Amino acid sequence: MIRVYPLRKDYTDDQITAFPLQVVGHNAGEVFCIKPVTDSTRWERKQLYDHELEEIHPWYYRNWLVEDQILVEYAPGKKCGMYRFTYPAHAVHRILLSPVDKWVLNGNGEISGSSLYHGDTKVYLYGQFDSPYDGALTFKDGVVALKYAISYISVAAAKVSFEQELAGKGFAEIEETARAAWHRIMNQISVEGGTEAQRRAFFTALYRCHERMVNISEEGAYYSGFDKQVHADVRPFYVDDAAWDTYQAMHPLRMILHPHQEEDMLASYVRMYEQSGWMPQFPRLFGDHACMNGFHSTIIFLDAYRKGLHIADVEKAYEGMKKNALQATMLPWRNGRLTWLDEFYNHNGYYPALRPGEKEIIPEVDTFEKRQAVAVTLGHSYDDWALGKLAKELGHDSDALLFEKRARAYMNLWNAEKEFFMPKDEQHHWIDIDPGWDGGPGGRDYYDENNGWTYQWQVAFDIPGLIQLFGGRERFERKLDTLFHAELGRQRYQFWAKFPDATGLMGQFSMGNEPGFHIPYLYNYVGKGWKTQRMIRSLLDIWFKDNQFGIPGDEDGGGMSAFVVFSSIGFYPVTAGEPVYTIGSPVFSKVVVHLENGKDFTMVAHNCSAVNKYVQGVKMNGKERKDLFFTHEELVNGGTLELEMGDKPSHL
Amino acid sequence: MIRVYPLRKDYTDDQITAFPLQVVGHNAGEVFCIKPVTDSTRWERKQLYDHELEEIHPWYYRNWLVEDQILVEYAPGKKCGMYRFTYPAHAVHRILLSPVDKWVLNGNGEISGSSLYHGDTKVYLYGQFDSPYDGALTFKDGVVALKYAISYISVAAAKVSFEQELAGKGFAEIEETARAAWHRIMNQISVEGGTEAQRRAFFTALYRCHERMVNISEEGAYYSGFDKQVHADVRPFYVDDAAWDTYQAMHPLRMILHPHQEEDMLASYVRMYEQSGWMPQFPRLFGDHACMNGFHSTIIFLDAYRKGLHIADVEKAYEGMKKNALQATMLPWRNGRLTWLDEFYNHNGYYPALRPGEKEIIPEVDTFEKRQAVAVTLGHSYDDWALGKLAKELGHDSDALLFEKRARAYMNLWNAEKEFFMPKDEQHHWIDIDPGWDGGPGGRDYYDENNGWTYQWQVAFDIPGLIQLFGGRERFERKLDTLFHAELGRQRYQFWAKFPDATGLMGQFSMGNEPGFHIPYLYNYVGKGWKTQRMIRSLLDIWFKDNQFGIPGDEDGGGMSAFVVFSSIGFYPVTAGEPVYTIGSPVFSKVVVHLENGKDFTMVAHNCSAVNKYVQGVKMNGKERKDLFFTHEELVNGGTLELEMGDKPSHL
């Protein structure tokens, strides 16, 4: 069965393409389905349970339909793909088309169709079968090939892509083009050492980091869901990002590997702002999807700016983000103008919360997503910090002062007695909750998806300030220790019934959701790097294996895989927005990253092994250093980071 | 930190022993704790979070306490063990004892103690340190060793074990004795082929299959929790079984590998009956723990009888089981006399259920475990079937007729319209529930731990009868297909909040709980062996890896690991109580099982590989056969089973 998704990428140039049937299927958003069968079964009756995935690569896929004995092969192009079905000789060779889409078949093998995605976005398909068939789509030949391309503009535009990418090409040629493209990408990082399993897990993660954003430009034009228009533009237009998920590690990784592509993505953000009047939170094919809380494009733009990327119209970007910060509601999963809650925030520096059981009276609040009062305050503190820093970089000094002040909002919700960020009501009184349990599904009255144990650490932009709140380095360290060992206080299934996103648990720490990623690196900020080193190795070993368990939570557009790529190489960008990395414990003994500027960044870990996971010494470009930090500049200048590894903790 | 458990086994002769600190700890029932430390921290303040398990075998274990830099080593004996702590040279060398137990220390290095387990069972310890210490248990030497033994009779009895097993022996000698004992056990099965990971998973499972039952005899005497007396007896007395979990695969596996040990275990069951007046359900150290439903010793005894084991006093066993069947309540998690519900069952052939929301009026019903009305009916149908067959074997013909009739009770709850076993009320009316969801936590109003999708198949003793209920082989097969692909109808976390035991999900099939084990083999009974073969390979591959994810649900005393051992070798005892095995798909190309009778059973799978998982042909002792079944007699006579494997399904 072919499932054509509107935005599933399997090609390196970040072009849209179809993606074939998956073992672990998610079928949200599939728009076209095509099934090869050996009988005349009607669509609804044919359940293809009996398939076996025989081989899968980003550039080639082979599936065996056991009961029908049909071999299905696939090779992707940029905006297109080719299927090949090999039927058993003495069977009916038939294709079923999903009944819900508009298909047009003519006698000469051409097939076209259109389908509606998300209720508002048209997806078009143009394709050709390579062999004759009758009116019931029954074929004479035992091998049937289908080439097709998709478009968001028209069938004619799909046909243009078809002509450019597929016409006159055979399966092997299309596969080889895709293979070569992926090999270029995968060869950008070379590794030595580690186990085969670690290398597999690493390159699988690296592959996943190329899933989004997706370039939807088609030959000098693109359809934008942000104003529902087709635009002529030679610069690639990228959609499908999840800023809350990707600002921490995915965008920073791309700023290293593909800075020019990142620049195109940021330019897309600016165009989306121009087209819709708002800087998007989660730009999708159909427009902005106001997911989660905060709007962390602020952090991504600051990060890119400080890392020396060229942002096409940075003032326009700043204008859009400032408008978001001051004129848009902070309510989770909501776009739109300020509400009473936002006015309250602007005056008081925190989002006010309801007491347990108290009825919501603000009509704009999403009935499921709730106020997320603590999470909103922490998230927008980070946004305001980033805006303040960017304002300063751009010379908007009074803005800088305003946002610097706003960035300290997080302190208003620190409850020193509880040692948690806790909610307050409108009268500035603490609301006495159990931060590990209260707040309804996902703790959303106060936190979001994770509980207060995770939100305790959401001040990545001001770690010294956070350490101070905890009362010093030792208490900060103890609290980190406690986090990784704390009891849930109930059965795990009871906990997950309320916090289903808090997967990959170690104590109260969740490896399976983005707000946790930077936490294991925080030991580095209190002189206990060995605890970071041990924890990172342990987390990679437990949660990111090369097997069917895959990853411990939502991939979320590369967010989680970027954690794996960074951590396996041996460092991590704890504070997105600061051009600084902190060192963990690499699983490889040598890693070379070939940069777009022609230079190589090299990481060498002498004596690195499963046992030798503790950093004994650090050199950058041959010079010893006494801490576990280095800069983006050192990296992109082709620096060489040397680590001496050993089996006992050192005091670095 | 040493934790001494009352019944944790790490030695082959099924003797009790202490077990050291585990990575994945369960500390229920620990009775003594001892911690090596390098400072004067009080017990409560010292949390040993920072340990790293460096090496673990059944016979040796090494743990590194990172912060204290103490090396902890351990080697087990039968009822004893030896610890060795290596402290850093210039640190305090100190031992902390758990404050809750009664410790006696004298000046010459001896240590003894006693502790209460389960509120009613005394556990005694006797040990010796090998080096001098002061009153605060601070040692001069940098290496401190502790040898100790435990007993359920007295400190003096523990000292006898100590003298016999430990006195005069060094660490290496104790370790070597344990190693040799485990190697004897592990070498009982030799395998060729498969991957290293499959061999690791297999031998880990085989190890786990030796966890229980546990021989608690001490030099010609044992303490019995069934009458709270010490008995003189030279025959080993075994406790700690979970019949609901182990009758399917664990006892059958032991009947192949260790039939004499199994005979001792069954003799222990008979003694428990004599001592307590009831045949136990889950015999534990402290007496019977009436867990789950049914009392499947019936099935185990029948199975052993038919497989030619010598049951010491089979008439006495039968007497006890008949008494259980006719005079004991069937209520889950309850011992005791008949209730009104049991009388109802005896007259009407099913356990009556309450309608959703209906209030319980029978006082004996456990408020959490509920009636489990469908599960009870299915479980006792199996018990009655086994008792009927055993009665026949023993010549109790009128009993045989009675129990054969009772064994058909399951048919009373088959709802042909729904194709599920469904509950009925007292008036013989169906209760219209969603069998996949209703019944409260674990579906316990009607089912138990799993939902109706699993209980649909709980007629392993009459598969032809079950096929008939489904309306024939094709519908039976389709329903199996559906089971493995059916939607949960809700988010997984919502499902697990109600059915936390239904882990290892594939569709509505649960690999993580005992009632599921035989289900993938049922395709063999409708001529679709290839679907069994594919499913078994897939289940082993997904759920039983050689990594930290371990097993997908409760181990339950070897129940789950026995499934892995059987399935990896290539066959399974679908109907415990019938001396017959059905063939799946071995992961190994050759397996030899060395039997106690001196013969070898050999399984050869020609061309077996990850791809060649389908059985193309079967030979037993060189003779071709046309089905996928063979007998226990063929196995214990040293038969050779030859399978021809291929990559395409055959019609065997």
UniProtKB/TrEMBL annotation, chains A, B:
Pfam families: Glyco_hydro_92, Glyco_hydro_92N. Residues 158-647 form the Glycosyl hydrolase family domain. One of its GO terms (cellular component) is cytosol. GO terms for biological process: carbohydrate metabolic process; glycoprotein catabolic process. One of its GO terms (molecular function) is carbohydrate binding. Keywords: Calcium, Hydrolase. This is Glycoside hydrolase family 92 protein. It comes from Chitinophaga silvisoli.
